[in-house]
UniProtKB/TrEMBL annotation:
Lineage: Bacteria, Bacillati, Actinomycetota, Actinomycetes, Kitasatosporales
Protein name (database record): Glutamate--tRNA ligase
Organism: Streptomyces candidus
Designated gene of the protein: gltX
Residues spanned by motif 'HIGH' region: 15-25
Gene Ontology BP, a term: glutamyl-tRNA aminoacylation
Record's function text: Catalyzes the attachment of glutamate to tRNA(Glu) in a two-step reaction: glutamate is first activated by ATP to form Glu-AMP and then transferred to the acceptor end of tRNA(Glu).
Length: 494
């Protein structure tokens, strides 16, 4: 088969700019990119914007921005340029027109004058008779007179590609050998009646013109591959293409309830992960496991490790299940792997954002750096950070009635009064001394440390759970701690 390309690897990522990028799309981009980097090949980024009704500039910008955020760089494409520019299909219309004319002239394509109603009627009749229901070849071999008659009627004509009457076999890099019989692949439209070229034409034509060697894409496109291979053969005979690329169809990604993850699924939107504070490397690590595995006993790895190991030959054909919990846990592991300064920097946008629950100007970098190591071992996504450290930057702790009710049981005023006294006398340069102070206050009331520290924590941070308490108190400082205990006592006194 002509699908073991002999030249250096050239892969492409060619999304249509419609809507927000979703995780399935990112997985496709990632596998192409990892394969390009693994083989020292070329990553081509092409924008398939031939559907003016659905494409948007906003979505185009989001695609570029998402790729940059993820660190999936491209060697040829928008803003980078390259020998096959332009890389936006909307700017390549003359090329497609030219190819369509050549296909028509050589008889690889023909004008089809059938109206939608006629096509529908014949399809229904074929179905009823239990026959294949695709295009029936009605206009394949019209005579000159028949064509003239249709033209005289003013019938609009689409351009249809003439499929060869033979089976098409190819070896999918993921699924192995696939053979499709000709009755299952009818002649198909490549140019609309208004002259607009269709995906069926522009996608393989660009792959040919851009000398793509490996087409790695979602399984949903598997059914278009036999058509594209036939078109490729025609392009080769016309000297437009050199060789048929190898195809590898990546497994479906399943979401909740074992249904295909759909673009509209909120869990599918890349922006959701970005806004929650996934690290690009955490997300890429997780997405690479959708249909591939690093090794039997390791599922946390860096991007360079992924590049070293990734081979499309190891991609599994079975559907992959999107598991949010696993994605989060992998991201948490990548947060632990950051060096402390990188972690502090990565969180800063969340700590200074206007949506943090304190005034951005109250952010204090020194206090943040002091507490950051305690937070780094605890957050799953970067946005978790605000609730963990807001007590440092707010004038007063958050008011959380549930936490208050849970912690202020028994005689909290008596405990807090004792704790205020022991804390006031403690050594504030040593968290151990602060711990002993709360321990001693607890003992006065027959309370173990856990019970004694709960009212202190809620008085000072507003919450029942958080970072290690005594380090938190030390960083917040003596004055603020005592003031907050006083305020809690006042509240308890009603
Ligand atoms: N623009 C097509 C899509 O987004 C690309 C298909 C392909 O990779 O061949 O579905
Ligand atoms: Zn027709």
């Amino acid at each position: 088969m002509a699908n073991t390309p002999s030249s250096p690897v050239r892969v492409r990522f060619c999304p249509s700019p419609t809507g927000n990028p979703h995780v399935g799309l990112v997985r496709t981009a990632l596998f192409n990119w990892a394969y390009a980097r693994h083989t020292g090949g070329t990553m081509v980024f092409r924008i398939e914007d031939t559907d003016a009704a659905r494409d948007s500039e906003e979505s185009y910008q989001q695609l570029l921005d998402s790729m940059r955020w993820l660190g999936l760089d491209w060697d040829e494409g928008p803003e980078v340029g390259g020998p096959h520019a332009p890389y936006r299909q909307s700017e390549r219309m003359d090329l497609y027109k030219d190819v369509a004319e050549k296909l028509l002239a050589a008889g690889h394509a023909y004008h089809c004058y059938c109206s939608t109603e006629e096509l529908d009627a014949r399809r229904d009749a074929a179905r009823a008779a239990g026959k294949p229901s695709g295009y029936d070849g009605h206009c394949r071999d019209l005579t000159g007179e028949q064509k003239e008659a249709y033209e005289a009627e003013g019938r609009p004509a689409i351009v249809r590609f003439r499929m060869p009457d033979e089976a098409i076999t190819f070896t999918d890099l993921v699924r192995g050998e696939i053979t499709v019989q000709p009755e299952n692949v009818p002649d198909y439209g490549i140019v609309r009646a208004n002259g607009a070229p269709l995906y069926t034409l522009v996608n393989p034509v660009d792959d040919a013109l851009m000398a793509i060697t490996h087409v790695l894409r979602g399984e949903d496109l598997l059914s278009s591959t036999p058509r594209q291979i036939a078109l490729y053969r025609a392009l080769i005979s016309l000297g437009i293409a050199k060789e048929i690329p190898a195809f590898g169809h990546l497994p479906y990604v399943m979401g909740e309830g074992n249904k295909k993850l759909s673009k509209r699924d909120p869990q599918a939107s890349l922006n959701v992960y970005r806004e929650r504070g996934f690290l690009p490397e955490g997300l890429l690590n997780y997405l690479s496991l959708l249909g591939w595995s690093f090794s039997a006993d390791q599922d946390i790895f860096t991007v360079p490790e992924l590049i070293e190991k990734f081979d499309v030959a190891d991609v599994n054909a079975n559907p992959a299940r999107f598991d949010l919990k696993k994605a989060e846990s992998i991201n948490a592991d990548h947060i632990r792997l950051l060096d402390p300064k990188a972690f502090a920097d990565a969180c800063e946008p969340w700590l200074t954002a206007p949506h943090a629950n304190w005034a951005p100007e109250d952010f204090d970098r020194a206090a943040w750096e002091a507490i950051a190591p305690h937070a780094q071992t605890r957050v799953t996504v970067l946005s978790d950070i605000t609730a963990n450290v807001d007590f440092l930057f707010r004038a007063e702790p958050v008011e959380d009635e549930a936490s208050w009710a849970k912690a202020m049981k028994g005689d909290p005023a008596a405990l807090l009064t004792s704790a205020r006294a022991t804390l006031e006398a403690a050594d504030w340069s040593d968290p151990e001394s602060l711990k002993n102070a709360v321990l001693a206050a607890g003992e006065e009331h027959g309370l173990k440390l856990g019970k004694a520290q709960a009212p202190v924590r809620v008085a000072v941070t507003g919450r029942t759970v958080g970072l290690p308490l005594f380090e938190s108190l030390e960083i917040l400082g003596k004055d603020k701690t005592l003031t907050r205990i006083d305020a809690a006592l006042a509240k308890l006194a009603g």
